[in-house]
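Let's practice the habit of predicting before peeking. Look at the sequence and jot down your guess about where helices and strands might fall. Then scroll down.
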Amino acid sequence: MDYRNFDMKSNSQVDVQSVDFARTFVANVFSWMFIALAITALTAWGFAESGMVTSLFSPDKHLNILGWIVMLAPLGLVFALSAGLNRFSFGTLTLLFVLFAVLMGMSLSFILLAYTGSSIALTFVSTSAMFGVMAIAGYTTKTDLTKMGSLLFMGLIGIIIASVVNAFLGSSTMDFVISILGVIIFTGLTAYDVQKIKRIGESSPTGEMTRKLTIMGALTLYLDFINLFMFLLRFLGDRK
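Done guessing? Here is the structure:
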């Protein structure tokens, strides 16, 4: 037997299996992301149309206690999902992910009252196009985006700090700069995160952990999309 030919064939089969697994894994991640976005959109629309969004605000148009809970709860669920990856079952992670999508819809419902429907639709289409292009780039590129991801993450921390500071300063110029940086950062993070998810798929995890990682990957891409959408809305959104 020619063991060299046997090894080459075995490696080739492993490579094909790895590629197939990665493709399936990434497809499942995107499927869950789209499901979450649909849940968020339907929740936001229903919450706004029913007038329930007004229950989040006090008469002076500031967030009341319920409003703060709805706004902060998604952040708490993100931490819970991340911390519970190894401890929670796939069913529990999925339930928390769906709850997260619902709460995000409730917290984002105010944009349907603040911006015109046409500008929201335009922003959504623009976000989808940018997200799609960068997702394809991240999936197909041979360049290692790890260093870029580290820089973008540092930039993300920077705009979070700047946003908190500007909440007290109220500078329109600073808000404009933050918005530009936000679009750039989340556009780049989309490519980086898709490449990272592809590599997770290529590592061929098995069993329930694979399904858990699918949910976590969907959460990551969901956050990239939503944040990119919100920063673009500052430029493209027409207020009512």
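How did you do? Confidence is low (pLDDT under 50) at residues 1-14.
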